[in-house]
Amino acid sequence: MGKNIKNFSDSVIVKYSEIHGSGIFTTEDIPAKAPILIIEGDVISTDEAVRRECEEGNVYIFWNGDVCIDTVRSEKIKYINHSCSPNCRVLGRSKKSLKLVSIGKIQDGEELTIDYAYDEIYEHCNCSKCSSKRSVQEKQIL
Ligand SMILES: [Zn+2]
Q1: Structure pTM?
Q2: What is the DSSP-derived secondary structure letter of residue 110?
Q3: Which of 48, 72, 88, 90 reaches 20 to 30 Å from 104, CA-CA?
Q4: Could you tell me the distance, in angstroms and rounded to a whole number, from the CA of residue 131 to the centre of ligand 1?
């Protein structure tokens, strides 16, 4: 009873990632389905998001229903990397914020990842999941 809802944001650190550039990592064990971080930033329209992506090369924008959240000035969440087998996912929280939640248990020291869900990523990805998905698609075409 009275299970503590703990926020793990203080245990999240930014450091060099073997996936890409900088990544975010946990410095303690995180249980399954636990809220980790609140995702906040400038709330902008989808048109403005597309403009910032194209003109400014801003890759730190999260979609939130019919608006977007630009996290470029955030300290941590903007560094989260993509994985096709992620250990976190993004859930809605409010119009102005999203939350990062663990999927399964995450161990102290692990990098936190989400699935960016861009087709271009899957097309060029060499992980076993994407490679096998591509080979199934090729067989279907033949
Ligand atoms: Zn992949």
Answers
A1: 0.87
A2: P
A3: 72
A4: 7
